[in-house]
Amino acid sequence: MHEGRAWVFGDNVNTDLIIPGKYLDNYDPDHLASHAMEGIRKDFAAHVKVGDIIIAGMNFGCGSSREQAVIALMQSGVSLVIAKSFGRIFYRNAINLGMPVITSPNATDAVRDGEMVVVDLDAQVLSSKDGKERVGLDEIPRRAREILDSGGLIPYIKRRLHGQGAA
Questions:
Q1: In the prediction, which pLDDT does 132 show?
Q2: What is the 3-state secondary structure (H, E, C) of 71-100?
Q3: How far is C-alpha 122 from the chain's CA centre?
Q4: Which helix (H) or strand (E) holds 5?
Q5: Would you state the pLDDT for residue 65?
Q6: In the prediction, which pLDDT does 162 show?
Q7: Are 137 and 123 in contact (CB under 8 A)?
């Protein structure tokens, strides 16, 4: 169960908007987090809190293959991202680094920016904190869910190599 404030964005939020290239001279996660979403919302890094949730339109994370975009969001406190669709490489980077990314065709229509929301990944539901608004979430693919439950790709592989997980 995830609970936090919703940060709502539109379509085609690319990795350069998530973490502008001019900040990639320093890969320290805290440095990256201090500039998260700066390309689209300058106040984001100063106001995001641990557990907050990004809800976006089509093609979130499109653009370059920089995994620093996911690191910036995770380090800033974002617990998960819900979008109508994701840039393919961003989606894979998020799963590999252990950040849940979930598709939902209607989330941006049901949630207002700044609203407190609750996400139940098991029930595949996003709801307003008061429970009045509810939106279905698409199922996270089984293998992606196994990787997320392990904390990312490296812990998942280590667990499998030591015979602690199913193939």
A1: 78
A2: HHHHHHCCCEEEECCECHHHHHHHHHHCCC
A3: 17
A4: strand 2-8
A5: 84
A6: 84
A7: no
The domains of the chain are located at: 2-138
Label the pairing between strands 116-120 and 101-103: unpaired
- Radius of gyration for the chain, computed over Cα atoms and rounded to the nearest angstrom: 15
Question: Where on the phi/psi map is residue 37: left (φ > 0), alpha (ψ -120 to 50), or beta?
Answer: left
SS (H, E, C) 28-53: CHHHHHCCCCCCCCCCHHHHCCCCCE
Q: Encoding tokens for residue 21?
A: 């290239």
CATH code assigned to 2-138: 3.20.19.10
Quote the DSSP letter at residue 106. S
What pLDDT is stored for residue 66 in this prediction? Answer: 87
Instruction: Please compute the mean of the pLDDT values over residues 137-161 and round it to a whole number.
Output: 95
